[in-house]
Design brief:
This protein is α/β, with parallel strands linked by helices and 487 residues long. The protein has helices spanning 5-8, 15-24, 66-78, 89-101, 116-124, 147-156, 177-186, 223-226, 245-255, 262-297, 335-344, 368-384, 389-395, 399-402, 412-416, 455-466; strands at residues 28-30, 82-86, 107-111, 128-132, 162-166, 173-174, 191-194, 218-222, 234-238, 304-305, 318-319, 323-327, 348-350, 352-353, 357-361, 420-424, 437-439, 444-447, 471-472, 481-485. It is globular.
């Protein structure tokens, strides 16, 4: 079978067939889910265990038996007072946590580099949002949220009823959760942490400290992102009484499907049991593979691989080194060009590309052969590409350039509920957006509803499009138009 078959299949081929062709090819997954398409957990045939709420199998939203016990075991494993299974991914956990923590039309202090689900929660609850812009790292990525920023914002906006932080970020950058939790608690308000990309922290001290051990009140984790679990599986942990747990249950019942998948819940149970019984040995081997990769990457001449030691702690408090960030350096390539070369020439599927780097997501299910393929490809590219410094500086887009502090005009919910004008994107300067525009992945808004379109923002969007990055959001993006609040 051709290695390119999943790109060349005709339109008459069905999704299941295309997926099977991809599985049979030699494309290696440096992307989620964390099981890396390898069934090393001896999981049952999915058809044989796909049931509904029949006798003896409990009810997720009124758990009294086997599902109650499963969630209690998860809480014990991760160190939470109470844990809830999420079968609609971290998205429903973030929606539920924010909705339960704040009254309608309350005020949320949140990191600007939050996932779009946090913004959707703000819309649904008609919240005022106050943003914390991350520090900028020399590598060209967004750094941590400094506690000093949080302290100042809590002083300037005493009406804030909760703090929401994304840690680790999509790039693996971790904030000082302990210090931020102390600041929130000094005001008597909860800290919610989107730790979707950090579920593996619990299982090795080589990784950053989990948010639950640092005083966070609610923590949301995606099992499928970095652990051997099926896509759409996640956990919501509660570790204090600052948020009414009955409200969390109410909103989980609203935001999750009324037909929770026993297949997904079984995957979570099996994953957690595997980690408790066999995880230590697998994790130790995995960390050794990571360390060896980073050591070898130090010898690359033009391509640069991010290492925590290159970033001061006040900018990058900590970093999850399972997220491999590969900068184009002085190759003269853009992030998208490097991404495409790795994909089409070396059959390595990265998680994402940005203006000047690509991200490889790894997990304990990765193999020595996979890491070797990645390094060999980078070494080969490193020898083939070299550009002048002027060519490099003109092309590269950094996170500091892409993500800017917004100019608010009104709340997200107020903007969305207004009458609309549909304008060409290029003619929208000075208008208030009624739509999101973001790069996907990672799904962080360049502009959100209620924010003013600026010339600088439009220039950034244009640059991102020219470099082939996935700019999405507006309902009429194909024609280059955006909905704005009608004047």
């Amino acid at each position: 079978m051709s290695n390119n078959i999943f790109y060349t299949l005709q339109k008459s081929v069905y999704l299941d067939q295309k997926l099977q062709a991809y599985a049979d090819s030699d494309y290696y997954p440096f992307h989620m889910p964390g099981h890396k398409r390898a069934d090393k957990l001896d999981f049952p045939n999915p058809y044989s265990i796909d049931i509904t709420e029949i006798d003896g199998f409990d009810n997720l939203y009124h758990a009294e038996g086997i599902l109650k016990e499963a969630q209690m075991r998860a809480a014990e494993t991760f160190g939470a007072k109470t844990t809830f299974y999420l079968i609609n991914g971290s998205t429903c956990g973030i929606l539920s946590a924010v909705s339960a923590a704040l009254p309608r039309r309350g005020t949320l202090l949140m990191s600007r580099n939050s996932h779009k689900s946090a913004y959707h929660a703000a819309y649904l609850r008609e919240l005022e949002t106050i943003y914390l812009l991350p520090a900028a790292a020399d590598f060209g990525i967004s750094g941590s949220i400094p506690p000093a920023y949080v302290e100042q914002a809590l002083h300037d906006f005493p009406q804030a009823g909760a703090v929401f932080i994304t840690s680790p970020t999509y790039d693996g950058v971790v904030s000082d959760i302990r210090a931020i939790a102390d600041l929130a608690h000094s005001r008597g308000i909860p800290l919610i942490v989107d730790e979707a990309h950090g579920a593996h922290f619990t299982f090795s001290k080589k990784f950053p400290s989990p948010a639950l051990t640092c005083g966070a009140d609610i923590v949301i984790q995606s099992l499928h992102k970095t652990l051997p679990c099926l896509t759409q599986t996640a956990l919501l942990h509660v570790n204090s009484s600052l948020v009414d747990i009955s409200l969390i249950k109410r909103f989980l019942d609203i935001y999750q499907t009324s037909s929770p998948s026993y297949l997904l819940m079984a995957s979570m149970e099996r994953c957690i049991r595997f980690l408790k019984e066999e995880g230590a040995a697998h994790m130790a081997e995995y960390i050794q593979m990571l360390q060896k990769f980073y050591q070898k990457s130090e010898h690359l001449r033009h391509i640069k691989v991010f290492q925590k030691s290159s970033c001061p702690p006040e900018i990058c408090f900590d970093h999850d080194f399972s997220k491999i960030l590969i900068s184009v350096g002085t190759t003269g390539l853009t992030g998208k060009e490097l991404y495409d070369i790795l994909l089409h020439t070396y059959h390595l599927q990265m998680e994402m590309s940005s203006g000047h780097y690509v991200t490889a997501l790894t997990s304990m299910m990765d193999t020595k052969a996979g890491f070797q393929r990645l390094f060999s490809a980078l070494d080969d590219i490193d020898h083939k590409y070299r550009a002048s410094d002027s060519d490099v500086s003109e092309k590269l887009l950094t996170a500091e350039m892409i993500y800017q502090m917004p100019k608010p005009s009104m709340s997200i919910s107020a903007a969305i509920d207004q009458a609309t004008d549909l304008l060409p994107l290029k003619a929208s300067t000075g208008h208030t957006s009624q739509e999101y525009i973001y790069l996907y992945p990672p799904g962080i808004p360049l502009v959100a509803p209620g924010e003013i379109m600026t010339g600088k923002l439009l220039g950034t969007i244009s640059q991102c499009q020219k470099q082939g990055l996935s700019v999405v959001g507006p309902s009429d993006m194909e024609n280059g138009r955006i909905k704005v609040v009608k004047l």
